[in-house]
């Protein structure tokens, strides 16, 4: 393209040109010819009197009936701006543009002002450019002024707003620009006034710091550029036509040559060339002023607009734009960080490669950026990856030599992708590469059969499937090729021919592996045709089939039945001894339309199929083959079809033969005094496998196998030499017997004694499984454990649900011994290291696949046991031994254990909390047994316990109200455990389990503010004064735990000892006067093992401390005497003799003299302060009668302060309107009271209610690109540690 002189950003017009526009001029050529009647005359803008212009593009009367401001006067649209008309979309874009052109002809300044305001308002700006601004201000000043008037309350603007109206507005906005240029392409765009002003405005707006201006102007400029490209393309075509006409006229003989026509053609070509040059100048101005800067804008949507439009330019006007100067921008942007932009790059290139002519001109670009395109097939954005594969498919069509074998292989393996669109695109690429090329020698081949063209293509598919080494994913390969190659995959006649027919002379026969792969592909194609949905792992949701798809499905199923009803017996006969082929072939009948056996008179082929199934089960002992035979019999023996009697007779004969053979072999096998040999054991095992496989899908109750198999199991227990596989399949078969018996009883079709028989058989079998669970063979133990878990779950209390109360006698709950055995199995077989797993066979210990399989098996075992916990089959506290492994085996079983904790919490929050703390106590005791009594809190074992406690704490979530009772009970059990055992080093030393408080402190953040004080009060019951004064390292767990329970600066009601323990307090404390009635502790409260209800009732009066700064009055004085509790007395909390054990609270006594409780020389100055204050408190209590008058004055003052506090609460918006907050339910034992308090409150989702004033302030300060939880969560509101 010819480089043109850059347009200036700002345009300013002098007054000298005013006289040049004394009358309106028609800028359009009425005859449709190209003319420039006013070119060069509008270099400057003419002025008019101020009264002649409407400010801000307002309405004015224009010549022509029914028009106002260039708009139609219809449907009440008078006095509407251009933006409002386009936004409403009620008028056709063509008519809107025609109205504006008419207004432009009458007064171009006013019309242009309308257009300027149109772009300003499309950006969401509330301001408008006035006529005065338009005349006297430069564009940069106008843009600055509009920026100041931009509404910053919302970040939305028309192009980003959601809703159908705004989506339609975007389309209307783009259409308006395109139609405007198209309608003005003959004269107005060449007047050097309209286009120069618009381009200057859009260029200036595109450089604005305001995103709305930048986004809208970039979209407008790019659409304007696209419209100009169309104009340039039309000019180029007209120039070519004019040139051909000129050459044709000039080549005529002189006598026939028309010189005047030659002159006209020359003049026309000259005018077209001048117009072309001007259009190129405009496009250069837009490209250099907007595109070059905005294709790398910080906003991804703006970058995407630029790339999308440059793709259109290269496609529309390839002669000018399809070169490396413009392609480089697309290539560079393929490395963009945003998938939206990369997607536009790939889409732009697809539009170019669709044309073979254009694709041939992209060789240099393809060689430079081919590697990037290939790597984008693995893009993290699925849409980008799909389009990249489609782009490579187009590249492949344009040239076979561009992509190397390595490039193609990187796409081939994507046919096995779990993302279906990627797999389908890769399948199309594979199909184009391997199956689309036909040589001349293939034209005369037959359409069907072994020698057909499809025969070779099917072989190619088999070869590809084998080379990919993913033989278990045949369904994925078929699904990937289905949309582009379904005709090939449905050629089952050719597949059957390849399997049954002998190869022709010189033809290479299929190998055994190739035949196995072909059978699998054939089965997958049959399944795809009959089920019409992707395989497991690729489902994109249930899709309703159309009428055409349903008809195709029925036709395919009919064709499959007619074809394979004849061929399947032959295939089974040929491959009878091949396990893999037979297993796949036996799955084909379940896709048959069984009516065709009767309507098509194919009964003889059905008999042949039944004979072959009998042959297969007779020759095989592999469990997969036997289960396939059983499933086939189950599908064929459908009572709805007429072939049922024929199939049922064959099945009964087969089962009679198997049962008779088993009973005969069992008698010989269990004969006393004879040692069974290996042949007898093999015969019993093979027959038992077949019976077990058929019993899975068929009811064999009438053969009464329970007695004989139970006898076999009992003999194995007595002798201890029963082969492993015989025991495993005997257990499995007995399990099926129990389940079929239960199904019969549940249906109500059994006689009265059947339930009693079932109950006896079930309990006897469970006892048998428990005995095998305690054996030494791991495989047998796993089978017994799995069956026990299933039976316990089936025969639990859940069996009576759905109106089956009559089955209550069958309910079976495991006793303690069985629960212990189940738990021990889990601990021994599941929670083991990978290297300790000896279950792998054939020396495959180091094989990664065997390790994964072993882990999967252990996960299933753990999941089976966890289901017993979640369904209340076993005691919940047995889960403690599972929960304690959460951290150690997090990678292997973390998801299972976490889900189990979640389910148990839903069942019983309190019991779940007790189980969690029990698991921590178990680990703590194990640590003590290993490391001794002196606990080092820096050891890895102790840190592991703390980390586990932290993880447990996170599982409680953020809704503290829901979990408050459970968390409080957890702290209660933890405190009792910490003070349970006295120190083995004698009095004066910390209790043995005191370090457990450090673990317990991880749960303190889950306590509500008022609950922390209640738990702190309960902790003080186990403490002596000496404990509170200790500062040695061994007492740090107690100190840190107490600190975690103290709310931040709000505990005015805290005891003196608690207040002074935190580095001393300068506030004076007044003790409550002694009263006649002191609190007496009942005997049952003197022990740490007291009941939960007693502890709860003791703490029910906990109150929320009032956050009130009071330098001279303590919270004790502020309280109403009627509401003062006996235990609020500071000295009463620790009034116990020194010889009393720390964990045994006793009734309040006279305080022990301070000199007998501590050694002053062991403490620093803070201890002396404490000493002074306690002495002062005791003196005040002994002289209470002398200070009665002073106390009455203090109480009056306290009442006044209470009124002040209530006023402050109401003024600050606190929720408490009463003096006593409702927190006494934290320790209650009745759940009904808790439900009453929480009535009407929905805690399913966490709602954080912030104070209104702070919420407004923080909302204005919140940055849009960053999220700081601390900016919206306040400790005074939430009081929970952020994790």
TrEMBL record:
Coiled-coil positions: 232-285
Major localization listed first in the record, in broad terms: nucleus
Domain SCD positions: 291-376
SUPFAM superfamilies for the chain: ARM repeat
One matching Pfam family: SCD
Localization in the cell: Nucleus; Chromosome; Chromosome, Centromere
Alphabetic keyword roster: Cell cycle, Cell division, Chromosome, Chromosome partition, Coiled coil, Nucleus
Comp. bias intervals (Polar residues): 11-24, 1055-1065
Cellular-component GO terms for this entry: chromatin; chromosome, centromeric region; cohesin complex; nucleus
Domain of life: Eukaryota
GO biological process, one term: sister chromatid cohesion
Keyword Transport part of the UniProt annotation: no
Region (Disordered): 1-73, 1050-1093
Quaternary structure annotation from Swiss-Prot or TrEMBL: Part of the cohesin complex which is composed of a heterodimer between a SMC1 protein (SMC1A or SMC1B) and SMC3, which are attached via their hinge domain, and RAD21 which link them at their heads, and one STAG protein.
Job description of the protein: Component of cohesin complex, a complex required for the cohesion of sister chromatids after DNA replication. The cohesin complex apparently forms a large proteinaceous ring within which sister chromatids can be trapped. At anaphase, the complex is cleaved and dissociates from chromatin, allowing sister chromatids to segregate.
Family of the protein in this entry: Belongs to the SCC3 family.
Name assigned to this protein: Cohesin subunit SA
Source organism: Pagothenia borchgrevinki
């Amino acid at each position: 393209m010819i480089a043109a002189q850059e347009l200036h950003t700002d345009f300013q017009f002098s007054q000298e040109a005013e006289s040049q526009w004394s009358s309106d001029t028609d800028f359009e050529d009425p005859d449709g010819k190209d003319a420039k009647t006013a070119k060069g005359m509008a270099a400057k803008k003419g002025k008019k009197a101020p009264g002649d212009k409407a400010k801000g593009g307002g309405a004015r009367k224009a010549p022509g009936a029914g028009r106002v401001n260039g708009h139609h006067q219809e449907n009440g649209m008078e006095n509407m701006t251009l933006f409002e008309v386009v936004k409403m979309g009620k008028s056709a874009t063509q008519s809107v543009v025609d109205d504006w052109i008419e207004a432009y002809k009458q007064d171009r300044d006013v019309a242009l002002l309308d257009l300027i305001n149109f772009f300003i308002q499309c950006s969401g700006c509330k301001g408008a450019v006035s006529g005065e601004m338009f005349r006297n201000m430069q564009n940069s000043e106008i843009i600055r002024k509009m920026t100041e008037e931009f509404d910053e309350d919302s970040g939305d603007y028309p192009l980003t707003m959601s809703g159908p109206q705004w989506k339609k507005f975007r389309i209307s906005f783009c259409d308006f620009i395109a139609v405007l240029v198209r309608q003005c392409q003959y004269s107005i765009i060449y007047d050097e006034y309209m286009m120069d002003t618009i381009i200057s405005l859009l260029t200036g707006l595109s450089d604005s710091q305001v995103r709305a201006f930048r986004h809208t102007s970039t979209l407008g400029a790019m659409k304007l550029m696209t419209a100009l490209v169309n104009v340039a393309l039309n000019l180029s075509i007209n120039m070519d036509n004019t040139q051909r006409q000129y050459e044709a006229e000039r080549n005529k003989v002189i006598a026939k040559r028309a010189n005047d026509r030659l002159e006209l053609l020359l003049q026309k070509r000259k005018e077209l060339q001048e117009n072309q040059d001007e259009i190129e100048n405009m496009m250069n101005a837009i490209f250099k002023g907007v595109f070059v800067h905005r294709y790398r804008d910080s906003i991804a949507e703006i970058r995407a607009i630029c790339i999308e439009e440059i793709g259109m330019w290269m496609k529309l006007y390839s002669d000018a734009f399809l070169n490396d100067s413009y392609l480089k921008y697309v290539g560079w942007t393929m490395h963009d960080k945003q998938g939206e932009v990369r997607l536009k790059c790939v889409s732009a290139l697809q539009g170019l490669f669709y044309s073979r002519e254009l694709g041939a001109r992209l060789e240099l670009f393809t060689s430079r950026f081919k590697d990037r395109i290939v790597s984008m097939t693995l893009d993290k954005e699925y849409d980008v990856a799909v389009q990249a594969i489609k782009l490579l498919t187009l590249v492949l069509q344009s040239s076979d030599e561009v992509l190397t074998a390595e490039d193609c292989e990187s796409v081939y393996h994507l046919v096995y992708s779990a993302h279906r669109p990627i797999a389908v695109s890769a399948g199309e690429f594979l199909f184009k590469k391997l199956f689309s090329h036909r040589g001349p020698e293939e034209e005369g081949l037959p359409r069907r059969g072994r020698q057909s063209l499809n025969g070779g293509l099917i072989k190619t598919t088999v070869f590809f499937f084998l080379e990919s080494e993913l033989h278990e994913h045949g369904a994925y390969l078929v699904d990937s090729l289905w949309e582009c190659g379904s005709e090939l995959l449905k050629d089952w006649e050719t597949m059957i021919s390849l399997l049954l027919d002998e190869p022709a002379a010189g033809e290479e026969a299929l190998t055994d592996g190739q035949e196995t792969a072909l059978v699998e592909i054939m089965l997958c194609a049959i399944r795809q045709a009959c089920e019409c949905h992707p395989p497991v792992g690729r489902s994109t949701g249930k899709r309703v089939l159309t009428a055409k798809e349903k008809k195709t499905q029925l036709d395919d199923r009919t064709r499959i039945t007619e074809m394979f009803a004849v061929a399947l017996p032959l295939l089974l006969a040929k491959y009878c001894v091949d396990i893999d082929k037979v297993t796949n072939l036996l799955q084909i009948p379940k896709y048959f339309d069984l009516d065709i056996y009767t309507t098509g008179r194919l009964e003889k082929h059905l008999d042949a199929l039944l004979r072959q199934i009998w042959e297969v089960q007779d020759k095989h002992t592999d469990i997969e083959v036997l289960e396939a035979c059983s499933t086939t019999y189950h599908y064929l023996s459908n009572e709805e079809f007429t072939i049922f009697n024929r199939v049922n007779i064959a099945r009964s004969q087969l089962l009679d033969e198997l049962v008779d053979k088993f009973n005969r072999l069992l008698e010989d096998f269990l004969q006393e005094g004879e040692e069974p040999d290996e042949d007898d054991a093999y015969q019993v095992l093979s027959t038992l496998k077949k019976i077990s496989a058929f019993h899975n899908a068929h009811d064999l109750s009438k053969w009464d196998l329970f007695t004989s198999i139970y006898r076999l199991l009992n003999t194995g227990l007595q002798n201890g030499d029963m082969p492993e596989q015989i025991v495993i399949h005997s257990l499995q078969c007995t399990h099926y017997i129990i389940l079929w018996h239960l199904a019969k009883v549940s249906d109500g079709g059994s006689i009265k004694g059947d339930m009693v028989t079932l109950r006896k058989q079930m309990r006897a079998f469970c006892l048998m499984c428990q005995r095998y669970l305690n054996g030494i063979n791991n495989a047998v133990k796993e089978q017994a454990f799995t069956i026990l878990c299933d039976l316990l779950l089936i025969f639990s209390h859940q069996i009576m649900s759905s109106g089956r109360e009559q089955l209550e006698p069958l309910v079976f709950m495991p006793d303690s011994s069985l629960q212990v055995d189940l738990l021990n199995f889990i601990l021994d077989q599941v929670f083991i290291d990978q290297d300790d797993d000896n279950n792998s066979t054939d020396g495959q210990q180091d094989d990664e696949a065997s390790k994964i399989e072993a882990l999967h098996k252990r996960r299933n075992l753990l999941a089976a046991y966890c289901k017993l916990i979640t369904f209340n089959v076993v005691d919940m506290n047995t889960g403690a031994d599972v929960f304690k492994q959460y951290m150690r085996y997090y990678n292997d079983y973390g998801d299972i254990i976490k889900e189990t904790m979640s389910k148990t919490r839903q069942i019983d929050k309190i019991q779940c909390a007790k189980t969690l703390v029990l698991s921590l106590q178990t680990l703590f005791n194990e640590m003590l047994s290993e490391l001794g009594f002196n606990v080092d809190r820096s050891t890895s074992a102790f840190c592991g316990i703390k980390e586990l406690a932290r993880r447990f704490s996170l599982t409680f979530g953020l809704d503290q109200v829901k979990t408050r009772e459970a968390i409080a009970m957890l702290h209660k059990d933890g405190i009792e455990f910490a003070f349970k055992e006295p120190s083995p080093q004698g009095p004066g030393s910390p209790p043995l389990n005191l370090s457990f408080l450090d673990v317990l402190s991880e749960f303190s953040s889950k306590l509500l503010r008022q609950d922390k004080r209640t738990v702190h009060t309960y902790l003080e019951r186990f403490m002596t004064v000496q404990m509170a004064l200790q500062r040695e390292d061994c007492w740090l767990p107690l100190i840190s735990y107490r600190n975690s329970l103290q709310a931040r600066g709000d505990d005015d009601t805290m005891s003196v000892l608690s207040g002074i323990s935190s580095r001393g307090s300068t506030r004076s404390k007044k003790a409550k006067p002694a009263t006649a009635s002191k609190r007496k502790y009942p005997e049952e409260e003197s022990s740490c093992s007291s009941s939960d209800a007693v502890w709860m009732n003791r703490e029910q009066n906990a109150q929320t401390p009032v956050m009130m700064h009071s330098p001279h009055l303590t919270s004790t004085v502020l309280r109403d005497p009627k509401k003062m509790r006996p235990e609020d007395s500071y000295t009463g909390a620790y009034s116990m003799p020194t010889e009393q054990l720390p964990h045994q609270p006793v009734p309040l006594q006279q305080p022990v003299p301070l000199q007998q409780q501590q050694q002053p020389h062991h403490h620093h100055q803070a201890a002396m302060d404490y000493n002074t204050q306690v002495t002062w408190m005791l003196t005040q209590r002994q002289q209470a009668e002398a200070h009665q008058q002073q106390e009455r004055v203090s109480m009056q003052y306290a009442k006044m302060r209470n009124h002040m506090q209530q006023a402050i609460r109401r003024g600050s918006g606190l929720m408490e309107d009463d003096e006593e907050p409702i927190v006494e339910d934290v320790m209650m034992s009745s759940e009904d009271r808790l439900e009453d308090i929480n009535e009407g409150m929905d805690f399913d989702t966490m709602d954080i209610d912030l104070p209104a004033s702070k919420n407004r302030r923080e909302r204005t300060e919140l940055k849009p690109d960053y999220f700081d939880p601390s900016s919206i969560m306040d400790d005074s509101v939430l009081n929970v540690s952020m994790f």
